C-alpha cells in the first residue's frame, strides 16, 4: 500500500454542477477524515468516519456537502450545486487506532468557474 | 472550542542554521495530542513530530524537536541544521481523543530555507 490516494487530483467545474471526489485510505486504517484547505490556510475539518459510520458531520459546510463510506473502505465526498466559494483543495486522511497520526492524501483541487 | 495559533506567517533560515516555529493553542482539556505537519509545495502533508500532553519529555525526531510548555499552552518546533528540503508550509495541529477524532490545524508558517 502506497498511502492515501485521492481521485481526481484536479477538477474544474462550472457553477451549479455536482462533483464527487474519491478517497482510498491506507488499507488497514479504520478512520477516514475529509478536510478543506483554502489557499494559505490550514486544513479545515469537514467530516470523519470510523469504519462505515459517519461519526461527525456537523462541520460539513452546508447541506450541499455529503460524504459516504459504504463498506468502510473508500469514501466519496459530493458537492451539489457547486459555488465559486467551494473552490479549494479537498484533503482526505486516514488513521488507525484510537490516537495515531493521520496520513494525508495529495488532495483534490477543485476550481469552480 | 479548541483553537491553534501560529503567529509567524512566513520565516526564512539559512541552510545549516537553526530555526524555531511558534505555536500556541487554547484548550481546557488535560488529555490531548499535538502535532507538527509539513506540506512541501504541491505535495501531500506529512507528519514531522507528535507530542502527547501527558508526557513531560519533549519529543525529538532527528533534526526536529519540540519545546512543549503545557501551562503556557505553547508547542514550538525547532529545526536544526536546516536543509533545502525543509522548505514547506508547517502546520501545528491539536487533537483531543474522543473529540470527533478530528485534528484542529493552525494557519501555518511558510518556511523558506535559503542556500
Shape of chain A: globular
So what's the oligomer here?
A: heterodimer
Distance between the termini of chain A: 35 Å
Count of individual beta strands of chain B: 12
Residue share in β-strands of chain A = over 45%
Find the structural class of chain A using helix and strand composition: mainly beta
Describe the biggest sheet of chain B?
Answer: 6 strands, mixed
Structural summary, described in words:
The complex is a heterodimer of chains A (113) and B (115). With 113 residues, chain A is mostly beta strands. Chain A contains no helices and eleven strands. Chain A has strands at residues 5-7, 10-13, 19-24, 31-37, 44-50, 53-56, 65-68, 75-79, 88-95, 103-104, 108-112. In chain A, strands 2, 4, 5, 6, 9, 10 and 11 form a seven-stranded mixed sheet that branches. Chain A has a four-stranded antiparallel sheet with strand order 1-3-8-7, with no helix packed on it. Chain A is globular and about 40 Å long. Chain B is an all-beta fold and 115 residues long. In chain B, 0% of the residues lie in helices and 51% in strands. Chain B has no helices and twelve strands. Chain B has strands at residues 3-5, 10-14, 19-21, 24-26, 33-39, 46-52, 60-61, 64-69, 74-79, 88-95, 103-105, 109-114. In chain B, the strands form three sheets. In chain B, strands 2, 5, 6, 10, 11 and 12 form a six-stranded mixed sheet that branches. In chain B, strands 3-9-8-7 form a four-stranded antiparallel sheet, with no helix packed on it. In chain B, strand 5 (33-39) and strand 6 form a beta hairpin. The interface between A and B is medium-sized, with 28 and 23 residues.
Amino acid at each position: 500500500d502506497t498511502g492515501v490516494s485521492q481521485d481526481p487530483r484536479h477538477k474544474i467545474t462550472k457553477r451549479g454542477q455536482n462533483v464527487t471526489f474519491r478517497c482510498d485510505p491506507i488499507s488497514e486504517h479504520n478512520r477516514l477524515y475529509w478536510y478543506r484547505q483554502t489557499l494559505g490556510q490550514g486544513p479545515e475539518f469537514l467530516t470523519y468516519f470510523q469504519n462505515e459510520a459517519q461519526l461527525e458531520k456537523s462541520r460539513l459546510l452546508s447541506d450541499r456537502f455529503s460524504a459516504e463510506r459504504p463498506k468502510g473502505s473508500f469514501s466519496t465526498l459530493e458537492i451539489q450545486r457547486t459555488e465559486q466559494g467551494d473552490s479549494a483543495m479537498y484533503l482526505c486522511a486516514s488513521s488507525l487506532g484510537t490516537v495515531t497520526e493521520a496520513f494525508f492524501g495529495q488532495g483534490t483541487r477543485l476550481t469552480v468557474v | 472550542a479548541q483553537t491553534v495559533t501560529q503567529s509567524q506567517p512566513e520565516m526564512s533560515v539559512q541552510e545549516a542554521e537553526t530555526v524555531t516555529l511558534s505555536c500556541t493553542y487554547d484548550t481546557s482539556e488535560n488529555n490531548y495530542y499535538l502535532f507538527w505537519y509539513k506540506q512541501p509545495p504541491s505535495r501531500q502533508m506529512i507528519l514531522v513530530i507528535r507530542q502527547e500532553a501527558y508526557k513531560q519529555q519533549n519529543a525529538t525526531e532527528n533534526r526536529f524537536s519540540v519545546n512543549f510548555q503545557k501551562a503556557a499552552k505553547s508547542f514550538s518546533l525547532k529545526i536544526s541544521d536546516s536543509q533545502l528540503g525543509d522548505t514547506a508550509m508547517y502546520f501545528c495541529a491539536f487533537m483531543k481523543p474522543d473529540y470527533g477524532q478530528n485534528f484542529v490545524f493552525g494557519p501555518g508558517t511558510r518556511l523558506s530555507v535559503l542556500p
